[in-house]
C-alpha cells in the first residue's frame, strides 16, 4: 500500500497500516517515511488527531 496519500486516509486505518509496515518491512519510522517520501511530522500530526503517539522503543503508534 502506498502511503503518499496518508493525509486523506482514516487515521485508525492509517495507524494500522503504518504499524504493520513498521513491524514487517522497516527498521524505523525514519526508514518508512524516507521510502514513501512523506513528512514524518505530518504523519505524526495526522495520527495524533486520533490520539495516537509514536512509541520509539516499541516502534509503533499507540
Number of strands: 2
Order of helices and strands: HHHEE
Main β-sheet: number of strands, strand sense, barrel status?
Answer: 2 strands, antiparallel
Spatial separation of the terminal alpha carbons: 21 Å
Structural class: mainly alpha
Point out poorly predicted stretches: none
Mean pLDDT: 96
- The helical percent reads 40-55%
Specify Rg, calculated over alpha carbons: 10 Å
Largest sheet: spatial strand order: 1-2
Q: Strand share of the residues?
A: 5-15%
Total helical segments: 3
Estimate the global geometry from the Cα principal axes.
globular
Give structural notes.
With 62 residues, this protein is mainly alpha-helical. It contains three helices and two strands, in the order αααββ. It has helices spanning 11-24, 29-36, 40-48, and strands at 54-55, 60-61. Strand 1 (54-55) and strand 2 form a beta hairpin. The N and C termini lie far apart (21 Å). The model has no long low-confidence stretch (mean pLDDT 96).
Amino acid at each position: 500500500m502506498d502511503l503518499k496519500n496518508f493525509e486523506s486516509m482514516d487515521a485508525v486505518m492509517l495507524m494500522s497500516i503504518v504499524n504493520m509496515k513498521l513491524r514487517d518491512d522497516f527498521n524505523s519510522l525514519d526508514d518508512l517515511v524516507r521510502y514513501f517520501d512523506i513528512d514524518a511530522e505530518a504523519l505524526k500530526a495526522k495520527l495524533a488527531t486520533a490520539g495516537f503517539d509514536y512509541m520509539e522503543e516499541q516502534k509503533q503508534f499507540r
